[in-house]
Design a protein that fits this description.
By secondary structure, the protein is mainly α. The chain has one domain: AhpD-like (Up-down Bundle), CATH 1.20.1290.10. The protein has 8 helices and no strands. The radius of gyration is 15 Å and the shape is globular. InterPro entries: AhpD-like, AhpD_core, CMD-like. This is Carboxymuconolactone decarboxylase family protein. Pfam families: CMD.
């Protein structure tokens, strides 16, 4: 597969990168940030972002078994994903899919119990940022393999 276009306005790319970086810094947990990015990218079928964030996750020490079973995190059990990770993944799915047009109250309230107000704001910012990147890459059909750290 070849990309429809490689063109992405530099100012747009810089702004999107700045949002992503700020959200990750504010969350303060690089491994969790990568799990969130990977899960959203799975849901959005973004091969480029999956390829990139899987590589970054490994560098941050995310276990291979977590990466292998991330698509089935709800069934994987509490031993593989702790409650904080499970909460972040549930929020990621709710924000990414928005099947009912909103994030369900119980998902948000659960997240608010596990993340402080600032952390939660950064987590939501991170989820929104990766969804933006997914849509930019998928709409242009950018194939995996072009990521360089």
């Amino acid at each position: 597969m070849t990309a429809r276009t490689q063109l992405l306005d530099r100012a747009v790319a810089q702004a999107m990168s700045a949002v992503s970086a700020a959200a990750k810094r504010g969350l303060g947990d690089p491994a969790l940030a990568e799990l969130v990015a990977i899960r959203a990218s799975q849901l959005n079928h973004c091969a480029f972002c999956l390829d990139m964030h899987l590589e970054i996750a490994r560098k941050h020490g995310v276990r291979e078994q977590q990466l292998d079973l991330l698509a089935a995190w709800e069934e994987a059990g509490d031993d593989l994903f702790d409650e904080r990770e499970r909460t972040a993944l549930a929020l990621t799915e709710a924000v990414t899919v928005l099947t009912d047009g909103f994030v369900p109250d119980d998902v948000y309230e659960r997240a608010a119990k596990h993340f402080g107000e600032r952390e939660l704001a950064h987590l939501i910012g991170l989820i929104v940022a990766i969804n933006n990147w997914n849509r930019v890459m998928v709409s242009r059909r950018v194939p995996p393999g072009g990521y360089t750290p």
